[in-house]
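Two proteins, back to back. First:
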Amino acid sequence: MNKKILAVSLVACSLVFAGEHWNVDAGGVSMKYLSMHASARTAGLSGAGVADAANASEISRNPLAMSAVQEAEAGINHIIFPEMTADDFTTAYLALPFEFWKFPLTASAGFEFLGYDGIEGRDEEGFKTSEYGAYAWSLSAGLGNRSKVFNWATSARLSVQTIDDESAIAFLGDVGGAYHVNEYFAFGATLTNFGYMSDYDGEDETAPMALQAGITGILPIAKFFDLQSNWNLHMSADAYRRADMQDPEWRFGGELNYADLLAFRMGYAARPDTEDGISAGLGVAVGMAHFDYAYSPKKAFDGGYHYLTLGIRF
């Protein structure tokens, strides 16, 4: 049964990558904040590792993260942007594992907010007008299983974006599936931000629908070198395509992990439409809390993004 599900998933993913019916002109999607990295772990891997989610902080971008939740967890993701761009971006999340008829499941909820004021207004002739603000927010809820072999997850999202006095609303969904061949190898895929989006100021808008598929290998360094330690090396390679990309983005990430208590991460993203991206980060767990940090330089903004995550299990 798992092989049949896997075959159908691969065919569906191939059709989405090849299908021209959802291609949009470059830069032609709206609500792009929904395709930004949210968690510090994901950012540290440059977005790679769709099949290797580690905790609930990744739920807002990767529904398969629900499969990694073994204890209830709540937390916050926060992004600090360079000066003269946008205000900070904050995501709050909650994940609750439970059993239904002996099936291990996880329910999730999330909230996102991005906003900034003091934008300089210009009229059609280029003269200054009054300043205005812009903001976007979303609410989401999801459900996924916690199987050791095949994982599935789905979530629904309400998103609103407002610029000055004009607003757009979207009802979107995420789905994902992952197959763990064994404890050392897994692959998975997600389709995110598909659904309905209203027009904006009389113009049709398109949501940032995206497909990501990837593989992850886990090398047990301690066993490989016959050492008495709990070091593991996670290596991931993913392909990512958003509706306004003509070519996929290739993402690569690595995480050196010690007993899920200490992690060092690096990532690289080869982007055909914009500048390539590199990133690095770390994670520390103390008791029921975990803290993650990542940094990604942005040459175009003469600075970089700082990603922070704080999660509490209970």
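And the second protein:
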Amino acid sequence: MAAVRAYLDYNASAPLLGRAREAVVAALDLAANPSSVHQEGRNARRLIEEARRQVAALVNAGKQHVVFTSGATEAATTLLTPEWRMGKADLRMGRLYVCAADHPCLLSGGRFAAEQVERIGVDGDGVLKLDELAAALAAHDKETGLALVAVHAANNETGVIQPIEEIAAVVRAAGGVLVLDAVQAAGRVSLDMSKPCADYLILSAHKIGGPKGVGAIVAAADLMMPKPLVSGGGQEKGHRGGTENLAGIAGFGAAAASALEAMPSISRIASLRDGFEAAIRDLVPDAVFFGRAAPRLANTSFFAIPGLKAETAQIAFDLAGVALSAGSACSSGKVGPSHVLAAMGVDEIQGALRVSIGQETSAQDLELFRSALEGIAARRAGGSRAA
């Protein structure tokens, strides 16, 4: 194994930021329960409310509309349910519409029965087909309840950014409710809940440099909310029971504050990505990039090297000191097929590699990536000549 390593897998999990680590450690020193009324309890509660403010600020929402969860999957499962409340009255969602390229936590349908979930297709670049969504919502049977639409803001594999405003307009025109999975988008693109955007956002701490095991639901308003997935002592205004993960929430807040401050420097990340994509094209001229014709996250590149299995390439990169992800194509006999590429109509490749970077990625990291790719490309060329 190489002594020097480059971590290029931020979309899987970003490294814990120093500021978030400090917040976690400080919170661990507070022994009190945040629900206790004594001074120690109030000190713990203040940490949670400060983190709530910081997370809300990242997406320009009201802090009273932030509900902390154990992560994005719990947040999704909470929101994706037929059973809702509006004030004291019951409200029903009749059907769930999801994007075919969504993360599995949305594709699973949450608490909806399988027959209540309908998938909306994407085009060859992975962008949701707005006309297909509009047609599905026009055909929705309102007698069964409202239409609930769940879509990712940015794809975790390709980095493709969905047309959020256009999707929101289609959903609003149909009288539906929009849940936006903003896990990959938060801190990388501007999200503003004060404007017509989504009714609910899903966030995750560890994607932006916070600790693992904490996430959030952010609502545009709290008039209408799903029936709780976790009931208990009334924490989070009754939306999510159980004693709060004080250390995780404090770290989440610190990471959110850092992400908001770093937003102006996204152009540097884009420059780094463009640099390593140029290196890929230089060393592997026949490399295939996915989603490049659509708007993408500045930090993400998803590509395939024809004739080389993604799993084989990933191992070679790892041995050379580079951590990145492999996603296999949806072709017969392959392990772990990429449903995203399948939805995009991609076939006849042996998988794809994802490079995802962040604020702490350096030019040296990408030089190590280039060096590793150069070796892989040379071995590939040698193998081709031998064949």
